[in-house]
Specification:
It contains 11 helices and 20 strands. By secondary structure, it is of the alpha/beta class. Bound molecules: flavin-adenine dinucleotide.
């Protein structure tokens, strides 16, 4: 496996991607963690920070950062996949607000650890600007701010921008307005996850790479090379979870794909903006996301790749020329200064996990010692840190503000068996795409997309 080819980010880490030693045979631990992405590594980090005597072993099928953590858009945001109103409906208004505040704090916490551990990951706490480029998008921007106000969030959390203010941050074509939140940092995601792996090793955690877990059961993570026995087993496999026996319907792996341009000139950046390295998107239904990288490129991504039958995850699915071409076109529409032939140097993608009710969760079943976190729907860079801190408290039996948050021990229903799952996920993706096209044509909000979003309870 040529790991640097998996993403622009993995090709620009500050170390060779030589795998760490595999698991040599049977062993014992206090906690065994399956998966060395952010979730697994943050959990190891906070467990050993709280109790340096704990023996923590991490088992990773490939290398640390092989999954979404080494390939994402690098938005360390306070976004949470379940909206405030949906959380409030399920858990009450105070719990919903506590969740949002915890997410705000999480962005600061990641920044604190990045500094404390000396992780060189181009951290830029520039916030996020989400543009409105159609009347329907502007309606959604206004509605989002109105909802935030109704929950007591103020201008310091989310503010409505007029066309001039939005363009001053991100001078895309046809900007009518937008929203801005300070609660996001742009990061080089692979340097973050690789730096985190080194940080946990400094704290005595053992990471075995190229060690695929074939079964997770109470008290054990089983691999072809041997079994790690531990009273607590943490599943931190996110979009890859369906590959584990008995977990095929736990999350649906949905692919997000990205492109990166060559470094842009100072004149091009003067035309585009993003001077504070704000992450950026717009208020369309089918998610797009971008950042100005530390070395002056545009890294830009979006969903829209198909869901694959049987929740299959394959390296071949990381590349979808149709989606790369669409991303390139979108970038050129947003920023005509890039010309029709946007200078793209890298293309890649990866799977992220979506639970049936769109709800991320973290938890520990005390009876079995099985713990998990995931289902972040593409918002896992920040959320996985909150998951790691929460799992550390749950595993150590500490009741805390974190363990009282509403996503803790939430059990999402399982996805339907195939072919219903395939039909449902791909139909949803198509509805969002056609809604965006219709809104561009008519400038009216799409009722089909609104109904679909409501059906999801999102
Ligand atoms: C293209 C893309 C863009 C994204 N952009 C953003 C963004 O800008 N902001 C944001 O917040 N989120 C984003 N996300 C989502 C975010 O990257 C993920 O939510 C986050 O990285 C999840 O971290 P994780 O550790 O839970 O999972 P992963 O990073 O996927 O790690 C899971 C690990 O488990 C390993 N594994 C799987 N099965 C086994 C097994 N059987 N045995 C051993 N190891 C196993 C895998 O190899 C992998 O390393 C994006 C995702 C993608 C794909």
């Amino acid at each position: 496996m040529r790991y640097p080819e998996l993403s622009y980010w993995l090709s620009t880490v500050d170390e060779p991607l030589a795998p760490r030693p595999s698991l040599p045979g049977d062993t014992l631990a206090d906690v065994v963690i399956v998966g060395a992405g952010y979730t697994g590594l943050w959990t190891a980090y906070y467990l050993t920070a709280a109790d340096p005597t704990l023996r923590v072993v991490v088992l990773e099928a490939e290398i640390a950062g092989y999954g979404a953590s080494g390939r994402n858009g690098g938005w360390c945001s306070a976004l949470f996949p379940t909206s405030l109103p949906a959380l409030a409906r399920r858990h009450g208004r105070d719990a919903a607000l506590a969740m949002q505040r915890a997410m705000h704090e999480t962005v600061r916490e990641v920044g604190r650890v990045v500094a404390a551990e000396g992780i060189d990951c181009d951290w830029a706490y520039g916030g996020t600007v989400v543009l409105a480029r159609t009347a329907a998008q502007l309606d959604r921007a206004r509605a989002e701010v109105a909802t935030a106000r109704a929950y007591g969030l103020d201008d310091g959390d989310l503010v409505l921008l007029d066309a001039t203010e939005a363009s001053a941050r991100c001078a895309a074509e046809g900007v009518l307005g937008g929203t801005y939140t300070p609660h996001c940092a742009a990061v080089h995601p692979a340097r973050l996850v690789r730096g985190l792996a080194r940080a946990v090793e400094r704290r005595g955690v053992t990471i075995h790479e190229r060690t695929r877990v074939t079964a997770v059961r109470p008290g054990a993570a089983v691999t072809p090379a041997g079994t790690v026995r531990a009273p607590v087993v943490v599943r931190a496999t996110e979009g890859y979870t369906p590959g584990l026996p008995g977990l095929r319907r736990t999350v649906a792996p949905v692919y997000s794909l990205m492109i990166a341009t060559e470094p842009l000139t100072a004149a091009t950046w003067a035309a585009i903006g993003l001077a504070a390295r704000e992450t950026f998107a717009d208020h369309r239904h089918m998610v797009i996301y971008g950042q100005r990288t530390g070395d002056g490129r545009l890294a830009f991504g979006g969903r829209g790749a198909p869901y694959h039958f049987g929740s299959r995850v394959r390296p071949a699915y990381d590349r979808e020329p149709r989606v790369f071409a669409a991303l390139r076109r979108t970038l050129s529409e947003l920023f005509p200064v890039l010309g029709p032939d946007v200078p793209v140097t890298h293309t890649w993608g990866g799977p992220l996990g979506v639970a049936r009710d769109w709800a991320a969760s973290v938890g520990l079943d005390r009876a079995t010692g099985l713990a998990w976190a995931g289902g972040y729907v593409g918002d896992g860079v920040g959320t996985s840190n909150l998951a790691g801190r929460t799992l550390a408290d749950l595993i150590r039996g500490e009741d805390s503000d974190l363990t009282a948050l509403p996503w803790v021990n939430h059990r999402s229903p399982r996805w339907e068996p195939e072919p219903v799952r395939w039909l449902a996920v791909n139909t949803g993706l198509k509805i969002m795409q056609s809604a965006d096209r219709a809104e561009l044509r008519t400038s009216r909000p799409s009722r089909r997309a609104a109904t679909f979003t409501r059906l999801l309870g999102h």
